[in-house]
């Protein structure tokens, strides 16, 4: 690969890394082509962008990224690496868990989600349990509606009792 091609790839990676604050690194090696394609389709269906990259190029991209904390992901760059970008922080973790019910891979190498660094496959459950922005908003709305519903229910019961009397 020519130097110009490598530079273009690194610049593209830096641009994507800077544009996303939810980044997963996974090891998909030893999966058959059929299984990799299934995983890619699953990623596509969940709006997760997945690309297999060379570790040397990804290392340079992480070093050039705007967020200096991303260099903490570099020690995880061993073996084949797939980089995943997403809008929903827990989507890739849930997808990996679901896919691993039938396969031994992909294995989570590292992740940068919600301003935190996660290293190793042992962090997969913690990442899967992170609530998305929409889930948190739904919970807050539910909590805010609950007292109002109780008050309305009490008022309706009170009105029904007066009507019965």
What does this protein look like?
This protein is an alpha+beta fold and 165 residues long. The protein has two domains: 3-130, Alpha-Beta Plaits, CATH 3.30.70; 132-165. It has six helices and five strands, in the order H-E-H-E-H-E-H-E-E-H-H. It has helices spanning 3-19, 33-45, 55-64, 91-99, 124-128, 133-164; strands spanning 22-27, 49-53, 81-85, 107-113, 116-119. The chain has a five-stranded antiparallel β-sheet. Strand 4 and strand 5 form a beta hairpin. The radius of gyration is 22 Å and the shape is elongated. The mean pLDDT is 85.
Average pLDDT figure: 85
Helix/strand order: HEHEHEHEEHH
Biggest beta-sheet profile: 5 strands, antiparallel
Tally of discrete structural domains: 2
Count of DSSP helices? Answer: 6
Strand content: 15-25%
CATH architecture of the largest domain: 2-Layer Sandwich
The CATH topology of the largest domain = Alpha-Beta Plaits
Rg for CA atoms: 22 Å
Portion in helices:
40-55%
Trace the largest sheet across and list its strands.
Answer: 2-3-1-4-5
What oligomeric state do the depicted chains represent? single chain
The CATH class of the largest domain: Alpha Beta
DSSP, total strands: 5
Indicate the overall shape: elongated
CATH homology superfamily of the largest domain = Ribosomal protein L10, N-terminal RNA-binding domain
Task: Give structural attributes.
165 residues, alpha+beta, Alpha-Beta Plaits, 2 domains, five-stranded antiparallel beta sheet, 6 helices
């Amino acid at each position: 690969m020519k130097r110009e091609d490598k530079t273009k790839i690194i610049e593209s990676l830096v641009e994507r890394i800077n544009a996303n604050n939810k980044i997963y690194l996974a090891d998909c090696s030893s999966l058959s082509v059929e299984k990799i394609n299934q995983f890619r389709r699953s990623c596509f269906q969940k709006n997760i962008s997945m690309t297999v990259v060379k570790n040397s190029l990804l290392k340079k991209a992480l070093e050039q990224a705007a967020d200096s904390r991303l260099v903490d992901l570099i020690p995880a760059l061993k073996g084949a690496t797939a980089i995943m970008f997403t809008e929903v922080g827990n989507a890739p973790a849930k997808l990996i868990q679901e896919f691993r019910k039938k396969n031994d891979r992909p294995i989570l190498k590292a992740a940068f989600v919600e301003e935190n660094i996660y290293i190793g496959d042992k962090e997969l459950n913690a990442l899967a349990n992170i609530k998305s922005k929409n889930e948190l908003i739904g919970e807050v709305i539910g909590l805010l509606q609950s007292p109002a519903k109780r008050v309305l229910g009490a008022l309706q019961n009170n009105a029904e009792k007066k009507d019965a009397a």
